[in-house]
């Protein structure tokens, strides 16, 4: 539930600020940033959950004119952040594939060579 003094629009603006900050920081990521992003994304999710609960209980007027564009901005920023994270993940997998890969599976996923360490633990 949203705090009484905080409007739905203020909540949307706060979530947008969190996502935008993570998106800007993700341009040059570092290992130490991942833990911070996890916390911030958790905060954004909690704010959105509170907003959703407020909508369900009817405490946020559904026709609030500035709310729809704010929610659309959150959706677009979240989508761009998702694409940015997926790109980074695919880039890392490509580096691993180039170094340790043996090809691709029937599903198009990289197949990595088993290492001696992996063989001893899984064997």
* Number of contiguous helices: 4
How many separate domains make up the residues?
1
Q: Kindly name the structural category.
A: mainly alpha
**Ends apart, CA distance between termini:** 50 Å
Average pLDDT over all residues:
79
- Beta-strand percentage? 5-15%
Number of strands: 2
Q: Outline the biggest β-sheet.
A: 2 strands, antiparallel
Secondary-structure topology with pairs:
Blueprint: H1 8-25, H2 31-57, H3 67-100, E1 101-104, E2 110-112, H4 116-122
Antiparallel strand pairs: 1-2
What does this structure look like?
This protein is mainly alpha-helical. The protein has four helices and two strands. It has one domain. The protein has a two-stranded antiparallel ribbon with strand order 1-2. The chain is elongated.
Keywords:
single chain; 123 residues; mainly alpha; 4 helices; disordered N terminus
Gist of the model:
By secondary structure, the chain is mostly helical.
């Amino acid at each position: 539930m949203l705090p009484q003094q905080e409007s739905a629009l203020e909540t949307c603006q706060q979530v947008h600020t969190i996502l935008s900050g993570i998106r800007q920081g993700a341009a040059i990521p570092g290992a130490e940033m991942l833990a911070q992003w996890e916390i911030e994304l958790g905060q954004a999710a909690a704010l959105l959950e509170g907003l959703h609960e407020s909508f369900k209980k009817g405490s946020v007027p559904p026709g609030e004119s500035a709310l729809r564009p704010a929610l659309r901005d959150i959706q677009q920023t979240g989508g761009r952040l998702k694409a940015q994270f997926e790109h980074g993940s695919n880039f890392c997998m490509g580096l691993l594939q180039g170094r340790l890969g043996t090809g691709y599976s029937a599903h198009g996923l990289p197949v990595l060579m088993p290492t001696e360490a992996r063989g001893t633990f899984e064997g």
